[in-house]
Amino acid sequence: MGIENNSCVGICENCGKCKGAKLLSEMNKRKTKLSFMPEDFIADQMEKYGISFDIGTTTVVGNLWDLEKGTSLQIIGKTNPQIIFGADVISRINYCEDDSAKFKIIRDKIAGCLNDIIKELLTNNKIEKQDILKVIVAGNTTMSHIFAGFNPKTLARAPFTPAYSGEKVFKAREVLLNLDPETEVILLPNIAGHIAGDITAGILATRMEDFKGVTLFIDIGTNGEIVLSKNDKIYACSTAAGPAFEGAFIHQGMRAEAGAIEKVKIKSGTAFFKTVESKEPVGICGSGIIQVIAELLKTGIINKSGRLLMPVELEGVKLSDDLKSRLRENTDGREFVIVFKQEKADIVITQKDIREVQLAKGAIYSGIMLLLGLLNEEIKNVDRVILGGAFGSYLNKESAVGIGVLPDVDLDKIISVGNTAGTGASMVLLSEAERKKAIHLAKKTEHIELADCSNFQEEFLKVMSF
Question: CB of 337 within 8 A of CB of 343?
């Protein structure tokens, strides 16, 4: 949870070695003093605590903080129980739109999840609920709407207008949290459409506003949010990447859980793989999907159009007998076998899976290209690419660049920084100055609606190929 990579990209004010932004790589380490806290921020002298939440479509993370000491006491993550209504936000909107009873059900689900986390945090740390001074919440637009009690139905169709704008402040009782009824709950400011408080938190946490040159911040999840900054300008857009990178709509796709294939390598004529926690393979998660497609592209088994080729079509390609045996065609179409299993179904990547990934990566890459066009910039001029979100932490950079999920830049320019939504929410919890900065950044960031861009479809078709 939190920033999962200790790579310094210009971190703290006092380091003496860093340049550019103040990315807080040490922020979420337990018992670590936060160097970013301004001197004028002082919590009540009594013991007081706060909780920051990152409400993701798939996972919800709560972080308990000692506000006086500026230390994280415990982080708890749980699967978002709304997943039973669909893996993606559109499915959840479709479930509850125009039906107040269903909206109550889906809202109660997320409130129950947050309350379960709150109960565990308080019990484990022997803290009373009246000692929670403040709660900060970051989430994508749909999750934020449902949490706050706004039906998200307007987010499913153009012009994708949110029910609220900017920061929202509630009492705990208004958002169904089992705390002192008067406890302040702050929902981080959204920017517009499908650019919400989780992205505001990401812009804040990465300090991308302070970088010189061209900076790309990409949060790859069910939606692919892209932020581009250059000097004093910040643009943001959301792409309908779909949940392919999270394993949804993939034949044997799954989340990055025990037994999920997360790495694939083709070497010496055979395929090697690694699973999460080195368990028996049961499916394939997003990072594995990207890597196997990249490997098949390298060997020529997938061509630039994305077609999975059979051995008869590979006469000019030197292919081992093992790799040939993994290529097959059945009534469901073509597939490549990653793992042969004797008693259960083989684990495969299918032609349809490849098309799903092409659609997802095409959406992200075309969004990047359109934002660069607004600044009259080219990919070669991008100075850094910052990857937020859990998925970015596990992504193989070479493979992601190889298939066109990420721009073709020097790999040293690509930095994975973990859960920037959770990090930004914690920063706002601990510092009133950071809260004001988050409000400023949300107002400053210019939202670009890709559906309104006349050349979006053309750009999308151009980048569909590998």
Answer: no
